Amino acid sequence: MHLKRRQNPNAKRPRARNRDMDSLVEAAWKQGWWVERGGKNYIKCYPSDGSRMIPIQNTPSNPRRAKANKASAMRRAGLNI
Question: What pTM was estimated for this model as a whole?
Fold first, then answer.
């Protein structure tokens, strides 16, 4: 579990407007990642080891391959999807 998740046990995950991206954010949250809202309609996802940050665009419409690209980046960071 990420250090910030341990420090904030009552924190709630941010919600993405796009259903596909929200499913990625929810999967990351359930596996102990720290997820926070960034600036300019982005959500920042940090893996448990804190090795990198993966930004997710928080807009209703995303490019066609956006979910697949973000899912593969999150898998490389250790997320089990």
Answer: 0.87
